[in-house]
Amino acid sequence: MKKLLACCILLALTAGAAAAADGGLNLGWGDCGGLPATQDRVFACNTNQTVSAHILIGSFVAPCCITAAAANEIVIDVQTTGAAHSPSCTGCTAGACIVLNSIKINQPVDAPGGSPTLSAPAMRNWVTWLGGLGAGTNCFLATPARNRTWGSIQSLYR
User: Fold this and answer.
1) Are strands 96-106 and 71-80 parallel, antiparallel or unpaired?
2) Assigned domain for 153 exists
3) Is residue 155 a part of any domain in this protein?
4) How far, CA to CA in Å, does 91 sit from each of 8, 30, 87?
5) Among 13, 27, 133, 154, which one is most buried in terms of CB atoms within 10 A?
6) Do β-strands 40-41 and 126-129 pair in parallel, antiparallel, or remain unpaired?
7) What is the pLDDT of residues 39-90, one digit of tens each?
8) Domain tally for the chain?
9) 127 in a structural domain
10) In the beta sheet, which residues pair with residue 98?
11) What's the whole-number mean pLDDT along residues 134-155?
């Protein structure tokens, strides 16, 4: 029995090391993701609560051979149940799924390992706002409804 237990523990430890070698994404409210308490943020939009109460943190576990990271290209998708794109606070009352879909780690051309793109979660790469999209939905599978350029997003605020 002790040998079986030792084998199971060893298998679990090596599986975790293999996942870390590939790298992965994390997303959480107020931390790097993975804690159940940081999965959902609820706010009634009825006070002038400080911004620090709603900090969304994305991070990644670097894969093997990252030696000279110079920049990151990040893809985040947001799906909502209402008009969350509204410039006023009326949009903050709509539930949403926020998914960190990928991070490309840019390195110089001659760096070992190239410039890998991470797309799998290390712990959890999604969070919800006001419970997400409702019962029976899975934020992990959220995909973009519209593909927008950075310029079109900036034009909304000019």
Assistant:
1) antiparallel
2) no
3) no
4) 48, 21, 8
5) 27
6) parallel
7) 888 877 777 766 667 888 999 999 988 999 999 999 998 888 765 455 555 5
8) 1
9) yes
10) 78, 127
11) 63
